[in-house]
Amino acid sequence: MSGRVEGAVLRVLAVSIAIAAVVDPAMSISGASRPRIAIVELTPPSAIGRHVRDRLTRDLSASYEMVPAVTSDTAAAIVIGDGYPSEVDGTDSALEVPDTLLVATVTVATPPEPGVRIIRVDAPSDVPPGTVIHLGVELEGRGITGQTTEISARVAGLESGHASHRWTGDVERWHAALDIVPIGEPPLVIRVEARSADQPQADEHAGAVSGTAADVMVDVRRAPFRVEFYDPRPSWATTFVRRSLEADPRFQVAALGFTSRGISSQTGGAVPLDDPRLDGFDVVVVGGLDRLSAADARSLDRYLRERGGALVVLPDQRIEAGPARDLVQGQELAERLLEQPALLAVTPPAASLRASELLVLRSMMPLTEVIARVPGADASPESGAAAIVSLPRGEGRLLLSGAMDAWRYRASDNGAFDRFWQSTIAGLGLAVPPSISMSTEPPLPRPGERVDLTVRVRSRGVASVSASLDRHQPIRLLPDSEAGRYRGRFVARETPGRSTLTVEAQGSQPITASQTLVVPPDVRRVRDAAAPALGMLASSHRGIDVAPERLADLEGLIRRTVASPRFSIARHPMRSAWWMLPFAACLSAEWWMRRRRGLR
Questions:
Q1: Which of 62, 413, 415, 457 has its CA at a distance of 20 to 30 angstroms from the CA of residue 121?
Q2: Considering only CA atoms, which of 519, 343, 470, 483 is closest in space to residue 416?
Q3: pLDDT band at 348 (very low <50, low <70, confident <90, very high)
Q4: What does the alpha-carbon distance between residue 446 and residue 433 come to, in Å, rounded to a whole number?
Q5: What is the pLDDT of residue 454?
Q6: Are residues 543 and 577 in the same domain?
Q7: What pLDDT, on the 0 to 100 scale, is given for residue 94?
Q8: Nearest to 365 by CA among 403, 320, 332
Q9: Cβ contacts of residue 40 below 8 Å, gap of 6+?
């Protein structure tokens, strides 16, 4: 009887296993995982930074998984760095953090070591051909009182500029001015190095360490300055300025003038002021202001504010109310007639200028740059007043000349009239951004380094903008918050050399611009002394910045804000192949019992 019961139990167990396998029931299991916390130590590492990293890893590893870099599943990041602005060689890809990620920072304030470091290099983005490059280098010396530092600039390995300074204070700054002669194929890579004059036989590359070397790139402007003269009526003032520019190969001059109503002359590809092609000119010179129309004034104002061009206004008589007066709004002008021509006091290095019929400014707007003044020889209210000024208008610049009859004395002072206007208008043209401008960050990338590209289009009627690297690698451009600005990203070539960036703007007037990207085999960079503190990274990512003595505050923030995420997992236990063993065992045991009783 007991054998039958046991057989029945085994049959029930086998059938139950079979039924459960068919039904396939699911079981839900809940639990919690350990969040990932990235601890990133910026270069160059320090002993204090390593100590902070080890302590944070020891204190937080019980509740969190500590990783050395930011990944897509990182819950928070802790960045350790030196709060003192110093040169950083290389990039920290771990700092590419999403905007929503919690980031806390530990500023390790390491005092600077005694020595010299370059904190800024000011250089023009481009210069005309055959023009000396003016560099401004600011250095800081600490703890080297009585020592002498020599600074040199090299182009294509040849020294092109040199200066020296003897330090007199414990903490002192020195601004060095260097004039560099362009050598080699543009764009030029200029290396500025500082070294101690007490060790003249030091290693040639000694300036590559401790922030005592920096590289800058300066291009040579290949295209001439495009200048258009616009005269609603004939004007001697613009005529002789135009002739002085036509004698200078740096300028490509176009002219549009009206000799009488309905009759005009056009040379050099000049266009009407309302033509979109006007944006292709760097400078517009306007005379005959009493015949200027309201439409002309609006077109010139748009050219200044939107295009960012330069406008030179050359009146030959008092500016009365009307469109011309609106064009120079905000300026209080007074006419002054002299018995003898006066030599105007100009801002060096501009050439001298003489005039006897003047429009002077009795009051000036902020940011007005005075180029020439009336000599202050008497006590009249206009004595010493500004006669030629330059002031900003939107993104452009307006130059107003009150030297109305300076053209009469163009033969005086060995042709100073021509030299004045050639240098002044060339300076205006250099400051005018092109119709399409490009900038890269960093300007001198390392091989294989990621480069951020910013494109600014200053032209009307642009429908689309595209960019490419060496004509075969497209660069995706996305519109920025500012109209006409686009941003993109690409990777520099893997080997040192030169690449070509090309940007094309399609519209009513297609525009194409190109720029050479230099990838040096080695590059030295300098961080600006006014660089943002590391704590700004924490403040922009909902974190805090602490000193090494306040790590407990940082750990408390992590524990309060980064919780272990709960998860739920569905399990199907009957899907395991191990259930075949008890199923087969039950059936085999039941069959063996039946055989012992003589049953089938």
A1: 457
A2: 343
A3: confident
A4: 27
A5: 93
A6: no
A7: 42
A8: 332
A9: 68, 69, 70, 77, 78, 79, 80, 92, 94, 95
* 524 lies in some domain: no
DSSP annotation string for 292-352: --HHHHHHHHHIIIII--EEEE--SS---SSHHHHHTTT-EEEEEEEEEEEEEEEPTTSPP
Domain count, the chain: 5
Tokens of 251: 């300028």
pLDDT of 427 strictly over 60: yes
Residues 520-557 as b or e (16 or more Cβ within 10 Å = b) = beebbbbbeeeeeebbebbeebebbbbebeebeebbeb
Element (H, E) at 18: helix 2-23
Supply the range of the domain harboring residue 245. 225-431
Same domain membership, residue 397 and residue 297: yes
Q: What is the pLDDT of residue 273?
A: 93
pLDDT tens, residue by residue, 529-576: 445 677 788 888 888 988 888 899 988 988 888 876 655 667 777 777
Torsion 366-368-369-372 (CA) sign? negative
Helices (DSSP H) in 366-506: which residue ranges?
416-431
> Do 371 and 399 form a contact (C-beta atoms < 8 A)?
yes
Quote the mean pLDDT of the chain: 83
**How far is the C-alpha of 181 from the C-alpha of 209, rounded, in Å?**
26
**Is 503 within the bounds of a domain?**
yes
Measured in degrees and rounded to the nearest 5, phi and psi for residue 505 equal -115, 120
Judgement on whether residues 297 and 420 belong to the same structural domain of the protein: yes
Whole-prediction pTM: 0.63
Instruction: Decide: helix, strand or coil at residue 461.
Output: coil
DSSP classification of residue 414: G
Check residue 537 and give its pLDDT: 82
292: CATH: 3.40.50.880
Three-class HEC string of 375-409:
CCCCCCCCCCCEEEEEEEECCEEEEEECECCHHHH
pLDDT in tens, 480-529: 888 889 999 999 999 999 999 999 988 777 888 888 999 998 888 876 54
271 and 387 co-located in one domain: yes
Same domain for 490 and 591: no
Beta strands in 144-235 (DSSP E): 148-155, 158-166, 171-180, 188-196, 213-220, 225-231
- Residue 36: predicted pLDDT: 87
- Taken in order 435, 439, 444, 449, the sign of the CA dihedral is negative
